[in-house]
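dude i think i finally got it to work??
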Amino acid sequence: MSGNRQSIDAYSSETKSLALCLFEFMAKAVGAKPESLLGIFEEQPRGLRMTYYPPCLQSDKVMGISPHSDVVGLTLLLQVNDVQGLQIKKDGKWLSVDAPNGAFIVNIGDTLEVPTEN
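look at this
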């Protein structure tokens, strides 16, 4: 197995462990049994996308991912440099997310939005 493949497999395994831990905490926070979320998401397929944005002095020339919502349960984003650009839409306004290098940003996807609404 190549070094890249081993690294990606290890990263995928660790992020799966992190996601399952987060599902457990979220279930407990809303008074549900952790198995309720773990049972839904534990064996679901996972995707991995690597998007690298190098520093660019001309921000009007930068092309990123188009505005979207995440249809999954959780999205884990790893900030790997000082290039900022992630935004969230809240109350109809786009707000920048200022994430420190090495931080994981956790987005709750559409799949969890419905069951947790009041």
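Residues 3-29 form the longest helix (27 residues).
im so relieved honestly
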